[in-house]
């Protein structure tokens, strides 16, 4: 898309779109730049690469936990103050990450980053929704979605390069000048929208939902523990399930629930949400597993490993257009069932990656994974949101964003636990064997989501609906 397109109808909105794009780029870059740096970070902190999944899932869990509150905070305090606070928290979190002397410090700093990141995207998108005329909204949303595609394209390579020429600390330090520029720009550009009517925040529902997510995530990550730790894992799992069950009962009797249960009366939404959750657990593990496979398993440098992630991002960008044509011709159900199988098999195919494998075959595997994964995300998102009415759109979109981040955290935690199960130390042949077994398992997890998509009605959409959904 031409960057000037959103401003063609009203040039006064162009600065706001660039500002929101900067915030999204900062968040998406940070979500991917860390992956190729994990082995170097583990060595610097005196940890095993096996233990570094907490750096990934703590950020994703923090974002998921604070997304439900971001809209209410913006409505109460205004989009301007909330966006400025998000930039400050994200930038301070980045500085704390760079100064981290231990893994525990780094995880805590990533949580602070996640709190800021949880408000950057939703609040920026809310400001655009309330500022841009309806006839220009699609063009505006397409424009600010470009950084979401560019971040994964640049992140792994930039991270690998920074590790080689400087140190892993710089993958966080580069956020400082970006954050300062964003803060100064937001002071001048960000409008101060507030809700016309104040509503009470559903604090009991939020606490139960957050407790459930945190407890289940920690339980999943704690599966890698041994001995008495298993009792704590069981306790956390039960607490998490009880908290989510409590939220379900609370929402059934509350008039201002964060996510009303009426959303799940929409067939496509409930199938799409559940399908997103289970399918994305496998996808969420791959950004952690692929760099480990390339660097720890094959002995590649961080820079070369990052370069190999470029074909994944490029193929994903190209495949988004193909998703429209495929769904228009074959329908949601057929495409999701077939493509889910392709994604799962593409993940499991990394079991054949060895030092003796042809580099071209390895490149083909990465391209196929990027293609199938991109189609999966685009079609799943469309299915989830397509049948929601105007009143349900905001809460439905927020719940989808929450599930996306939560599944990313679950995926990283599951990958770490599986690696710990298959091998306690990532070194030599044991590392490759553990990685191969883990790829097969995450592929099987993804394949299981076909049982969810099987329940979809077999219909064909308006192709314009697919075009409006951007990952």
From TrEMBL:
Tell me where in or outside the cell this protein is found: Cell membrane
* Keyword Cell membrane belongs to the record: yes
Q: InterPro entries, alphabetically?
A: EmrB-like, MFS, MFS_dom, MFS_trans_sf
Report membrane topology.
Multi-pass membrane protein
Keyword entries, A-Z: Cell membrane, Membrane, Transmembrane, Transmembrane helix, Transport
Give one GO molecular function term. Answer: transmembrane transporter activity
The segment(s) forming the Major facilitator superfamily (MFS) profile domain are: 16-461
Q: Which residues cross the membrane?
A: 16-38, 50-70, 82-101, 107-128, 137-155, 167-191, 203-223, 229-250, 257-278, 290-314, 335-354, 360-379, 399-422, 434-454
Classification via Gene3D superfamilies: MFS general substrate transporter like domains (1.20.1250.20), Multidrug resistance protein D (1.20.1720.10)
Principal localization reads: membrane
An example GO CC term for this entry is: plasma membrane
Q: Does the keyword Transmembrane apply?
A: yes
**SUPFAM superfamilies reported in the protein's UniProt record:** MFS general substrate transporter (SSF103473)
Q: Which NCBIfam families match?
A: efflux_EmrB, PRK10504.1
Family annotation (PANTHER family)? BLR6921 PROTEIN, MAJOR FACILITATOR SUPERFAMILY MULTIDRUG TRANSPORTER MFSC
What name appears for this protein in its UniProt entry? MFS transporter
Its source organism is Stenotrophomonas pictorum JCM 9942
Lineage of the species this protein comes from: Bacteria, Pseudomonadati, Pseudomonadota, Gammaproteobacteria, Lysobacterales
């Amino acid at each position: 898309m031409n960057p000037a397109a959103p401003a063609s109808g009203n040039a006064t909105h162009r600065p706001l779109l660039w500002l929101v794009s900067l915030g999204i780029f900062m968040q998406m870059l940070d979500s991917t730049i860390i992956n190729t740096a994990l082995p170097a970070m583990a060595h610097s902190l005196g940890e095993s690469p096996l233990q570094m999944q907490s750096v990934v899932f703590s950020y994703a869990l923090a974002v998921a936990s604070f997304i439900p509150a971001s809209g209410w905070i913006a409505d109460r305090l205004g989009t301007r103050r909330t966006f400025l606070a998000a930039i400050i928290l994200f930038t301070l979190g980045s500085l704390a990450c760079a100064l981290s002397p231990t893994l525990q410090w780094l995880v805590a700093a990533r949580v602070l980053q996640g709190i800021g990141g949880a408000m950057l995207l939703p609040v920026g998108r809310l400001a655009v929704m309330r500022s841009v005329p309806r006839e220009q909204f699609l063009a505006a949303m397409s424009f600010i979605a470009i950084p979401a595609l560019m971040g994964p394209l640049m992140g792994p390579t930039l991270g690998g390069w920074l590790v080689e020429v400087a140190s892993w600390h710089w993958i966080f330090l580069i956020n400082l000048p970006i954050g300062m520029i964003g803060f100064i720009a937001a002071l001048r550009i960000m409008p101060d929208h507030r809700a016309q009517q104040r509503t009470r925040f559903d604090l009991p529902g939020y606490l139960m939902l957050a407790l459930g997510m945190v407890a289940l995530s920690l339980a999943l990550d704690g599966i890698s523990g041994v001995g008495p730790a298993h009792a704590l894992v069981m306790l956390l799992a039960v607490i998490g399930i009880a908290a989510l069950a409590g939220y379900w009962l609370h929402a059934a009797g509350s008039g201002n629930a964060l996510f009303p249960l009426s959303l799940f009366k929409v067939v496509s939404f409930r199938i799409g949400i559940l399908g997103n959750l289970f399918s994305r657990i496998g996808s969420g593990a791959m950004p952690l597993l692929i760099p480990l496979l390339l660097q720890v398993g094959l002995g590649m440098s961080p820079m070369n490993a990052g370069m190999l992630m470029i074909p994944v991002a490029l193929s994903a960008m190209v495949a988004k257009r193909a998703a429209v044509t495929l769904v228009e011709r074959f329908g949601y159900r057929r495409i999701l069932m077939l493509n889910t199988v392709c994604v799962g098999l593409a993940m499991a195919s990394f079991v054949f990656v060895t030092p003796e494998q042809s580099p071209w075959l390895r490149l083909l595997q990465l391209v196929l994974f990027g293609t199938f994964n991109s189609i999966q995300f685009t079609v799943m998102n469309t299915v989830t949101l397509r049948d929601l009415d105007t009143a349900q759109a905001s809460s439905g979109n927020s719940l989808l964003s929450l599930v996306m981040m939560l599944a990313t955290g679950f995926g990283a935690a599951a990958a770490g636990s599986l690696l710990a199960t298959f091998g306690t130390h990532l070194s030599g042949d044991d590392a490759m064997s553990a990685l191969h077994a883990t790829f097969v398992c995450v592929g099987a997890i993804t394949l299981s989501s076909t049982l969810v998509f099987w329940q979809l009605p077999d219909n064909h959409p308006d192709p314009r609906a697919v075009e409006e959904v951007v990952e």
